[in-house]
Specification:
285 residues, mainly alpha, Helix Hairpins, 0% strand, extended
């Protein structure tokens, strides 16, 4: 299921742009983009040689670049990266048409029919009490059409591990296999920390067992993120960015003093690190 949300400014009583009456988007722009893609496929040697295999990583790359722009909430970057993402999706459709005969119209017809079928509370007479019931009904409809497939079979195996863990947990939550509160999940995190500590106290540590305990701990932490409505992959990226910014400040401080960081005692680096922590990052405008 595709769930989209955007925390943008809007006037009181206004609806998000995606809920307004269709036709506001100039269809000529869409056709112009399709014409550009067709022209590139005919006349550009690089675009002409692309295959489904070579286009797949390009689509993934654009998805990650869009995700990064969304994480930064950079409207200019979002506009650019969303355009690139849409371009790559349509470019892939053209490549698929050439290699497999699959038409873009077939994909559009399929997704429109699926969305209408899985939203009977909108396109039918079903009544729902809220978003949670929509998700439960969505999974029930999916299982009805895919009786032989398990709940987790559709989780992409090549997703980054944190995203994969969060998606697995979300799927299980839809059928009620979940903790009720974030407090319960925090207890589970503490339990996993205790199990790891027990393994570390052993005289003969098992690397295999430690790795398993660490995996369980990471999975539990992702679960806690989910219950707190936090994107685990995103907050870890934020933490990585913050660490890099502070460490680069430490590097620059010693470089200005003409010192090699490898020769600086740990205690001195720690003091520089604390100074970097106290500096506020520049705000984006």
């Amino acid at each position: 299921m595709v769930l989209l949300s955007f925390r943008g400014q809007r006037s009181a009583g206004a609806y998000p742009a995606c809920t307004r009456r269709p036709g506001r988007l100039d269809s000529g722009m869409f056709e112009e983009l399709m014409q550009v893609i067709r022209t590139l496929r005919r006349r550009c040697p690089w675009d002409r040689k692309q295959t489904v295999a070579s286009t797949r990583p390009l689509v993934l790359n654009e998805a990650f670049e869009l995700d990064e722009a969304l994480r930064r909430r950079d409207r200019k970057a979002i506009a650019e990266e969303l355009g690139d993402y849409l371009f790559m999706g349509l470019f892939l459709a053209c490549v698929l048409r050439a290699e497999t005969g699959l038409r873009l119209e077939q994909s559009l017809e399929t997704v429109v029919a699926k969305l209408k079928r899985r939203h009977p509370h909108v396109y039918g007479r079903l009544r729902v009490s809220g978003a949670d019931e929509v998700l439960v009904n969505w999974e029930r409809l999916k299982r009805g059409r895919r009786q032989r497939r398990g709940l987790l079979e559709g989780v992409p195996v090549r997703l980054p591990a944190l995203q994969q863990a969060q998606l697995i947990q979300e799927r299980c939550q839809r059928v009620g296999f979940d903790w009720k509160t974030a407090g319960e999940v925090l207890v589970k995190v503490q339990e996993e920390v205790g199990e790891l500590e027990s393994e570390l106290r052993r005289k003969r540590r098992s690397r295999t067992q430690m790795a398993e305990e660490l995996g369980d701990l990471l999975f539990a932490v992702v679960n806690l993120c989910r219950h707190l409505d936090v994107d685990a992959e995103g907050v870890l990226k934020d933490a990585n960015r913050k660490f890099r910014r502070r460490f680069e400040q430490v590097e620059r401080e010693f470089q200005r003093a003409g010192r090699n960081l490898a020769d600086v005692p740990l205690e001195e680096m720690e003091r520089a690190w604390q100074r970097a922590k106290r500096r506020r990052p520049r705000r984006r405008h």
